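A.,

Following up on our hallway conversation. Structure tokens first:
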């Protein structure tokens, strides 16, 4: 599982398989670029759960946000949990770079199998866009609830608004490119979900699902990331990586005109590309749902 991704689409031929280790550059780019959003979310969680002893990041990816949680809760021990060892190794590197290794550890686990190897229950469990990569989301959510200490808090980041990078009309190709990319992406996401082992169709009413697994839904809040044009080089690099993955992974579902437009947008020698154009921005929103386990 992995933290930072907005269904960027896979590369390669099997578009229902997501290789998170292969996505490492994108995951790191996004987590670092989205730090203001995650910082705001973590500060809000500190108000709700001010002094956790154990913080678990379920689906940690490369650990950028795991380390942010460790810095937000300086007295807590933090465990980054992921199914990909390459991502956990990177999480350990990030923790070492920030001087957090004395209270930071990793655990390799598939979220579909629960978090049973934790040494003791979590006081705060953070799961950022990892649950939807498990076939039976309700069962996995119940596993999260079992891993909480009495009175513990589950923060589930699911939903929000897909990122926007460009105006509707960009001067090349047909207007509305990103809306069409989003529609193709939604189709890919449904196929990905259906192909997961033990896939169960579920209404994405996250507060209701928290209640269904025995937690008390206490709050939902959406956090905005607004990086206006002209975008920084870091932001442009993320947009290039995101659009490149879509161009590679979704090409079979896009029309010839949209593919040609994407090729121009990604060509560093083209002045109309996202490498150069002044109107590239990043606007997105992510929603966190919080549930608390009974004392």
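Then the amino acids I'd put at each of the 295 positions:
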């Amino acid at each position: 599982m992995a933290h930072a991704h907005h269904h960027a689409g896979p590369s390669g031929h099997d578009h229902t398989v997501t290789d998170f280790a292969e996505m490492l550059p994108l995951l790191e780019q996004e987590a670092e670029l989205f730090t203001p959003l995650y910082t705001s979310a973590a500060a809000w969680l500190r108000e709700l759960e001010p002094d956790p002893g154990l913080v678990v990041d379920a689906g940690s990816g490369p650990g950028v946000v795991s380390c942010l949680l460790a810095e937000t809760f300086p007295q807590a021990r933090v465990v980054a949990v992921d199914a990909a060892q390459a991502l956990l190794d990177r999480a350990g590197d990030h923790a070492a770079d920030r001087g957090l290794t004395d209270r930071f550890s990793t655990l390799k686990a598939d979220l579909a199998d629960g978090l049973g190897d934790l040494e003791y229950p979590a006081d705060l469990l953070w799961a950022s866009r990892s649950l939807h990569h498990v076939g039976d989301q309700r069962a996995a959510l119940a596993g999260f609830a079992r891993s909480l200490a009495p009175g513990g808090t589950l923060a589930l980041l699911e939903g929000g608004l897909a990122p926007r990078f460009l105006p509707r009309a960009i001067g090349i190709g047909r207007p509305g490119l990103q809306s069409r990319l989003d529609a193709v992406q939604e189709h890919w996401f449904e196929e990905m979900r259906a192909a997961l082992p033990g896939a169960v169709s579920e209404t994405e009413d996250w507060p209701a699902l928290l209640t269904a697994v025995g937690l008390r839904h206490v709050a939902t809040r959406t956090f905005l990331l607004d990086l206006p044009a002209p975008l920084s080089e870091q932001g442009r690099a993320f947009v290039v990586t995101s659009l490149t993955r879509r161009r590679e992974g979704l090409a079979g579902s896009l029309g010839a005109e949209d593919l040609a437009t994407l090729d121009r947008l990604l060509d560093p020698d083209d002045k109309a590309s996202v490498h150069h154009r002044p109107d590239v921005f990043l606007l997105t929103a992510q929603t966190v749902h919080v549930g608390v386990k009974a004392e």
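Residues 1-16 have pLDDT under 50 and may be disordered. Curious whether your intuition agrees with the design.

B.
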